[in-house]
Design brief:
Helix Hairpins, four-stranded antiparallel beta sheet, four-stranded mixed beta sheet, 26 strands, 33% helix
Length: 421
């Protein structure tokens, strides 16, 4: 490895270290910012680009071709952050993003990946608003493999990106399916044949929450459960890495508490706030800060303490906890929660108001069937999200290996040239 004095950058034999300004053309002088009011008068299908991506669509363009766009200000500049992106074809760009294109020795896609991999906060100026001005942009040191190797590195990373994008689309598809099913199942339910009811084949009635099957009830939440608040930590106490689990709003993902994110309190504090313990049979609902987050408690967090920003809905009467969690997260109930909260500087939902919210109450076996169907979709979404996280970890590992030369792609290039792929 060759040792480069500036920042001790090391590269393999055959690679160079160059300043970005020596291997790109910069087109910043062509940028023209347009305010939102004017853009609203020229709507179209041509991207209008800013620091972190496309922010609007208009009917005119400045640039046409392949360029690398790198945030000037308002972007993210740490390692593994999306500091750069590629634009192909016609687009317009404002003055918050640099417009560059690699010269003959630099592949645009390789540059995009390197800028998003490297921690370039070293080059940032400004104390109140971080800015990567053009002079500092040009001074960025970049390891430069031979062009063929750059292209192969970019191709490998792009393959992982496409897999991530494909997984994202699958996740969004299942989320749309879930939303549609929630609307149907939580207002029409499932009949004795396992099919969603229809007013053409079953009897419905008008209720305070809209049309529902004749055999369903509508009850107030406080009639079928007890609602109890959480507790803030005693003054001067902080969360720690070991001890007794303490559930916060940031630990909630989907309708579950993510046990891997939970922090802890000392055992002695647990005794002081022991009445604020939650059970795996409870449902959590956030009532302050971010209103309306719903979560179930995984088995391993049974007996945890609960933040003061949430309540536990406990001692359920003829009410399945999973069905309740889905019901509370449905947009009809969420709308009621928002109405009860009101518009205030620091929103908070009073417990006595929460108890008045009307919810549907199907027969208990039907509640379980509805919850089972929705839980299956949730499990599928969780598996896809876990797979996406795995891909993102793989990408980070590949970027660290390939963009520094720790792992070479030369052998892969030779195989491709002789037709082994």
């Amino acid at each position: 490895m060759n040792n480069i004095n500036n920042k001790n950058m090391k590269v393999p034999e055959g690679w160079e270290v160059v300043r970005l300004g020596d291997v790109v053309d910069v087109f910043d002088s062509q940028r023209i910012p347009l305010d939102g009011e004017y853009r609203s008068t020229i709507k179209g299908n041509i991207p209008y680009c800013g620091a972190t991506g496309v922010i609007d669509f208009i009917n005119d363009f400045i640039f046409d071709g392949e360029y690398v766009l790198i945030a000037e200000d308002g972007g993210k500049f740490q390692r593994f952050e999306e500091t750069a992106y590629i634009m192909n074809g016609k687009f317009w760009a404002n003055n918050h993003v640099h417009i560059v294109r690699g010269k003959n020795s630099l592949e645009n896609l390789f540059l995009k990946y390197f800028i998003s991999f490297e921690d370039i906060s070293y080059y940032i100026s400004g104390s109140t608003r971080e800015k990567l001005n053009q002079q500092l942009l040009k001074s960025i040191l970049i390891p430069l493999p031979p062009l063929t190797e750059q292209q192969r590195i970019a191709e490998i990373l792009e393959t992982v990106d496409r897999a991530i994008e494909k997984t994202d689309k699958i996740i969004e598809k299942y989320k749309r399916i879930k939303q549609g099913l929630m609307q149907d199942l939580l207002t029409r339910g499932i009949d004795e044949n396992g099919k969603i009811r229809s007013e053409k084949t079953h009897k419905f009635r008008t209720s305070p929450i809209g049309r529902i099957p004749e055999e369903w009830e509508v009850v107030r939440l406080g009639e079928v459960s007890e609602i109890k608040g959480g507790k803030r930590l005693p003054k001067g106490e902080e969360l720690i890495d070991e001890g007794h689990p303490y559930i916060r709003l940031v630990d909630i993902e989907g309708i579950r508490v993510n046990a891997s994110k939970v922090k802890y309190i000392p055992e002695k504090i647990k005794q002081l706030i022991s009445r604020y313990i939650v059970s795996k049979n409870d449902v959590i609902l956030s009532i302050a800060g971010t209103i309306g987050l719903v979560a179930l408690i995984p088995n391993e967090l049974d007996g945890s303490n609960l933040t003061e920003n949430a309540v536990k809905i406990t001692n359920l009467k003829n009410l399945d906890k999973n069905f309740l969690a889905f019901t509370l997260s449905n947009y009809l109930v969420q709308r009621q929660i928002n109405m009860l909260t009101g518009v205030v500087a620091q929103p908070k939902l009073a417990l006595f108001r929460l108890a008045t919210i009307p919810i549907p109450l199907p027969p208990f076996p039907e509640q379980q069937r509805i919850a089972e169907i929705l839980s299956q979709i949730d499990n599928t979404i969780e598996k896809k999200e876990a797979y996406k996280q795995k891909l993102e970890c793989i990408k980070k590992g590949l970027m660290g290996d390939l963009l520094t030369g720790r792992v070479r792609v030369n052998e892969l290039i030779k195989e491709k040239e002789v037709g082994y792929e």
